[in-house]
Amino acid sequence: MASCEMCGKEVPHTRTVTVGGTVLDVCNECARFGDEAKAAPPPEPEAAPYGAGPEEMRSRIAQASAKGKPKDVLTEGPEELVDDYPKRIREARQRRNLKQEDLGRLVSERKSVISHLETGEMRPDDKMVRKLELALDIKLKQRAEFQVDTTKKRARSGGVTLGDLIRMEK
Question: In order of start, what are the domains of the chain with their CATH numbers?
Fold first, then answer.
């Protein structure tokens, strides 16, 4: 049995397709998202194949460690607006004994905009977030956190599949 690299499903056989420039072994259902992959060119004679052996892997790991930690795209993703931004804005304004009009003047906005932000009727854009963070000395953005259901059966690698990432977005 083989595992689909896209959805993680166990299937009797996989097909090799190219999805977004990446060659994957996928089930028949996921194959519709890509094009049949062309045969890969043979490796250059002087270059050792990727994962040539334990010695090669130890060397690569040592080099990567020497350069610093590899970037984890799941934990070091872009910053997103926090869900409780209305509460944070209101509480920070009240701690500084500011009226909505006063805060509006500080960030060059009308009182109605501040009111809409504090009730959650309006989401601030990036420029407004920076102004509010500076004026109120608060953080309104944080790194996006992803959660993956690890109770389901995983691909033979034991890792996260593309299907897991797609389901996280929904």
Answer: 1-39 (no CATH), 79-143 (1.10.260.40)
Tell me the three state secondary structure of residue 12. coil
Asked if residue 84 lies in contact with residue 124, where contact means CB atoms within 8 angstroms, the answer is no
3-state secondary structure of 44: coil
What interhelical angle do 85-95 and 111-119 show, nearest 10?
Answer: 130
* Assigned token pair, 32: 């519709």
Which 3 state secondary structure label does DSSP give 150?
coil
pLDDT in tens, the chain (170 residues): 888 888 888 888 888 988 878 888 889 888 888 888 776 555 565 555 554 567 777 777 777 665 655 555 555 557 888 989 999 999 999 999 999 999 999 999 999 999 999 999 999 999 999 999 999 999 998 876 655 555 555 545 556 777 777 766 55
